[in-house]
Structures are given as C-alpha cells and as structure tokens.
Amino acid sequence: MDDIVVSTFPLLNLPINAILNTFRTMDPVQVFGVSILSKKTKNLVESFKITPEMLQVEVAEMFVINFILPSDTTFYFELYQVPENQPLLELGTPETIHIHCNSQVMVWTNSMNVKQLLDHLRIIFHRPIDKLFFEENCERFSLESIHKNVTDVVMINIFSGNHEHNRRILSLFQPAALCLVEHALVDQCVPRDILMQNFDLFHVPDVQIILDDLLMTNSRFILLFCLRLSWKTLNQFLKLWVKGSNLRLEYLFLRFPDNLGLDELFNGLKYQDAPPKRELLKAYGGRDIWRFDGTQATISTDIRDDLVSFRMFVWHDHRVVN
C-alpha cells in the first residue's frame, strides 16, 4: 500500500480547458489529492462540478465513507476499524486513512477530523450525505460523536437489532427519511413509536403490517414491502382515509403477494375512473376517491409475477395535477 503521491506536473499553469482535460484523465483519488494541496486547488476542483451519484457513510465495525460513481469504479475511505470488546470509539482525527479505488488501496497520512473530511468531500464533490447506514456492530462507535461529525444527512438506514440504540439514533438525528431493514424490526414488525414519527419518507422491506399499523404511520411518502396483506384491509384503510385518517399522506406504495379479492378494494366507496395518464409522479389510470374535505386521491394497482403493487397518490393543494 502506498501513500498518495502528489505529482510535480505544473497543472495550474495550464489553460483552463487543458486543466479540465487533465482532470478527466484522473481517478477519484488523484482528484482528491489535488483538492487537499491548497485552498486554490480545492476551489479549482470544486469549480469543475465533479459529482458522484451518491455519498454514503457506513457505520459497522468499521467507519467508511463510500461514493457511488456513474462508472463501476469503487471509491471509499476507511477511517476506523474497531475490534470486538474494545472501548467505545469516539470519532476524532484518524492518523491514517485507507483509500480504496478499484483494486488499489492507498494510505493517506491524515490531518483532518472526521467532520472536516466529510465537509471537504461534500464541497468538492457537490453532494450531501445521501445515506447514513447503521449496520451490525455500529454500537462500537459513540453515537454522540457520530451525530457531532456526520451532519445534514438526507436518509438514515438502520440494520441493527439493538432497538434501544435505534431509538437513540432517531432521537439524535431526527432524519427526514428512514429505512428499516432486517434486524431493525421486532418480529418483522415496525415498533409503533417509530411508525408515529413524522418522516418525509419511510421505507421498510419485508415487513408484517396490519390495519392499525397503516393508520398509525404518519409519514408523507410510505413504501412498504409486505409479507402479507389482504384487499379487505386496504378497503378498510381507504374508508378510514376518506373519513380523515393519515392527513399527512401524499404517496403510499405497498407490495404484497397476490391473493383473491381485488374486487373488494372499492366496496362501499364512491369513485370514478381516473384520467388515463397523469405526468406527476407517473400516476397512470386507476380510480379517484375523495376525502371528506374534498382532497382527491388516485388508487392504482398492478399485478405481476403474483405480486401486487398498490399505489395511492394524494393530490394535496400544493400539487399540480394535469
């Protein structure tokens, strides 16, 4: 493994187009290396608007900053690795950082603390922290120090089965978007104190869900992949929505195994066929229903490979409907 090598090539003396062409030949590690030379080179890298598809922070037994790039390039920073039975680790200034790019691993002698490094990467690559993952063994790191150093996170993904720790995560970060996966569930169900929180986006794959759970879910955009669900339950949910439940709901997506009874979905509901196409949110066809206050919703269903995709679009006043 090698330290990052900074070339003596007179990059800044070149015309701007030549500098840009040079950047296009660099791998992400070289771009990062140029950005830390000086404030001028940092501003230069920033000006070229090199943008990955996603910036993720992953906390398990390791603390990793990972970039998802348009190509198949692997590019991530490994800052810490905490062995089992070690004292709780506080994030600070790691002496060395292992930078992985494809099959190469480089060792960088570091002088920035975790927050400074993340802020630097966010600026030069024009990305927020799209996702923060709490995975198995994430409890080896101080949660308070993670909260202090990893800021302005768009979405939190929780894989850990330590439910008290998960509640502390949500209390500290108060994320706008949340995904719960695998061990974060209790007997394949979402704890109800989590369902009741006001997320903008709430996503859970492989979950057991009942009517009361749907009614308690207070998020705007909800995506649930259900292990089982009946059309009768959905019919009851729609009737209660008409009466005023789930006032924050804007979009509900449910996927579940097909079962007989699709004709039950609109029993006892007033509806009319929706226009064949609405551009916003790609709502195609379906049926329109109305809440007691006049708010309109479009319901569409699609069955493929024995899986139902149920979509509910709620057209609030701030939405524009074609």
TrEMBL record:
Pfam families: F-box (PF00646), FBA_2 (PF07735)
InterPro entries per the UniProt record, alphabetical: F-box_dom, F-box_Sdz-33, Zygotic_Embryogenesis-Asso
F-box domain: residues covered: 8-54
PANTHER family reported for this sequence: CYCLIN-RELATED F-BOX FAMILY, F-BOX ASSOCIATED DOMAIN-CONTAINING PROTEIN-RELATED
Protein name, as recorded: F-box domain-containing protein
